[in-house]
Amino acid sequence: MTTTLTVEGMSCGHCEQTVEEALCDVSGVTDASADHESGQASAAGDADVPAPAQAVEDAGYTATA
């Protein structure tokens, strides 16, 4: 399953890396990607739906599924 999030606040490659690392730290996430230009991030795996969004929020960004 892949969860796609709209992420507000990413403005550069470093932001993308921060979001990807936050997503990869979620239990059940096997792969993550983020793109600041589109404002989207995705997490693949079997994590509970709110967990990836919460991880992005905890990293300092606004995320909506």
UniProtKB/TrEMBL annotation:
GO terms (molecular function) for this protein are:
metal ion binding
Q: Output the superkingdom of the source species.
A: Archaea
Which parts of the sequence belong to the HMA domain? Answer: 1-64
- The record's region (Disordered) falls at 30-65
Q: Which Pfam families match?
A: HMA
Q: Which InterPro entries match?
A: HMA_dom, HMA_dom_sf
Name recorded for this polypeptide: Heavy-metal-associated domain-containing protein
Species name: Halapricum hydrolyticum
Q: What is the lineage of its organism?
A: Archaea, Methanobacteriati, Methanobacteriota, Stenosarchaea group, Halobacteria
